[in-house]
Amino acid sequence: MINTFIMNEWTVIILILALSVLLAWYTGKYMAKVYRGKHSLLDRIAPLENLILRFCKIDASRQMNWKEWLTAFFTIHIFWLLWGFVILMNQHLLPLNPARIPAMEWTLALNTAVSFLTSTNLQHYSGETGASYFAQIMVMMFLQFVSAAASLAAGIAVLRGIKERSTGYLGNFYKDFLLSMTRILLPVCFITSVIFLLRGVPMTFKGLDTIVSLQGDTVQVARGPVAAFLSIKELGSNGGGFFGTNDAHPFENPDTCTFIVHSIIVFLLPMAFVFMIGFFLEQRKFSRMIFMVMFIGFLIITLPIIQQEIKGNPALTNMGILNKAGNMEGKEQRFGAVLTAFYCGVNVVIPAGTTAGMHDSFMPLSDVFMLIGMQTDAFFGGLGTGWINMFIFVIIAIFISTLMIGRTPELMGKKISLTEIQLATVIILVQPLFCLCMAAIAANVYIHYPGGNIALAWLSNSKAHGFTTMLYEYISAFAGNGSEFAGLGNNTAFWNLTAIPVMLVGRFIPMAGAIIIAGNLASSKYTPPSYGTLKADSVSFAVFLFFVIIVVQVLCLFPSLTLGPIGEYVQLSLNQ
């Protein structure tokens, strides 16, 4: 019976992947029409968009170079940050707070505002007890929408840098941002929110409900405007749960149907963006090459996680405990080891970071692939940002490969200069350098703080697993993932404040660097490809690109993996 159940779970996984690819292809084609200004399904809302632009006094026809684009991008983000911080600090004074939730402590409020601003959604609070309905809507949901739209606009700007012929322009940030909201995010979110509502997800502004459990206990049950919140949570590669247990909570994920919908909308836009590349640049072969690299990378990250969780915990087997259902610690019985592990794989390669089980309870080798998946952040990745990270890897791979054949590096007729290569290299090195330095500081504080772990109240596990817990926090924050190990007591001033620069650097350094590179490419002269030009859309280049990604990421992370999850695996093996 167990084997039959596992086969049914694999059927669900295949169904999710098939539907995701199919829907993403059509969505990508539609997105290309939207951003290229061609006739599309929602053209009738153009008067409303024009009204919004006129009200904000924005000239949508004005083209921006990379400096103007980044100025607009950062200016509006500063406003959003202040907006979120002020509301969280004053949520106890604002309406829609039936549970009378107090204001957030200032370090937690700042951490939360930055977290949702950067699409990280690293939650150092529990949703149903830490944020009022007003804060959930006006801060969390609002920032999930605008950060996702800004990411899409950034991805489009990079594509324009490749497509433009010596103009130096990357489009108009405000126009692309608005189109991302009105033509893509809002319509899809409306459809999926209705589906969630029909499947029993709550949508109410009433306060706590009182029920009597099967064993006769009277309990208070949290609820709220959950159905509207969930769609952008996953569609925007955000992941911030309305409830503390995220998609393991029955109100966020009632059944297998909602599990399938959750999984598809996590995949939908990152996949669609890859297909859109082909339609937008009129380079279908290049987009297929990128999709192939991303999909294989996703499988290489996800399948080992599933395999480890199916095997179960050998420590239980050695104790004579039946372990056929796999490693079920920290997992929902409704979804089992296979679907929970699959959902984990999806949400570490796509930095939605939403969870259906506790990652802290996964097997040590599963942690290895989680960390590599988040560190890479280019196997589909987030909306626009996944393509941006892959774009950086493409620049690096082109540079290395052309050195081998003695050619000048170029991408689609645009020469890649020393400046672009230097910027790409810095972006690649910033993540491991920044995350590992912060993890080293945390480990040093943990070891030398008077009273140790008891005084800090940080870790429920010590040794290798404890180090993995701290390392995971920073890599997740940098990658814009936001998932966490539940064994970390992170609502302290130390974790709230040290995670902030990690999230900011992880969001804005790769994005700003890619925009500068795109601006330089847009200014450079187009040179038609010749017979000796490196073909960046070939299978051989795809293989080379994939190995460049793996080698760079694994080499950067391997020493830390040996101290953390690999060290824990060795310890468990020696104890058997």
SSE layout:
Blueprint: H1 2-36, H2 46-55, H3 66-89, H4 106-117, H5 127-130, H6 133-163, H7 173-198, E1 209-212, E2 218-221, H8 226-235, H9 256-281, H10 284-311, H11 314-318, H12 336-349, H13 364-376, H14 385-405, E3 410-411, E4 414-415, H15 418-448, H16 452-456, H17 463-478, H18 493-523, H19 539-563, H20 565-575
Antiparallel strand pairs: 1-2, 3-4
Helix pairs in contact: 1-9, 3-4, 3-6, 3-18, 4-18, 6-7, 6-14, 6-18, 7-8, 8-9, 9-10, 10-12, 10-13, 10-19, 12-13, 13-17, 13-19, 13-20, 14-15, 14-19, 15-17, 15-18, 15-19, 17-18, 17-20
Poorly predicted sequence stretches spanning 5 or more consecutive residues = 1-5
**Relative strand content:** under 5%
The counted number of beta strands is: 4
Mean pLDDT over all positions = 91
Tell me the number of helical segments per DSSP (H or I, 4 or more residues long).
20
Q: Kindly provide the radius of gyration, computed on alpha-carbon positions and rounded to a whole number of angstroms.
A: 23 Å
Counting helices, strands and paired strands, the structural category is mainly alpha
Q: Could you state the order of secondary-structure elements as H and E? A: HHHHHHHEEHHHHHHHEEHHHHHH
Structural commentary:
With 576 residues, this protein is mainly alpha-helical. The chain has 20 helices and four strands. The strands form two sheets. Strands 1-2 form a two-stranded antiparallel sheet. Strands 3-4 form a two-stranded antiparallel sheet. Strand 3 and strand 4 form a beta hairpin. Helix 7 packs across helix 8, helix 9 packs antiparallel against helix 10 and helix 12 packs parallel to helix 13. The longest helix has 35 residues. The N terminus is likely disordered.
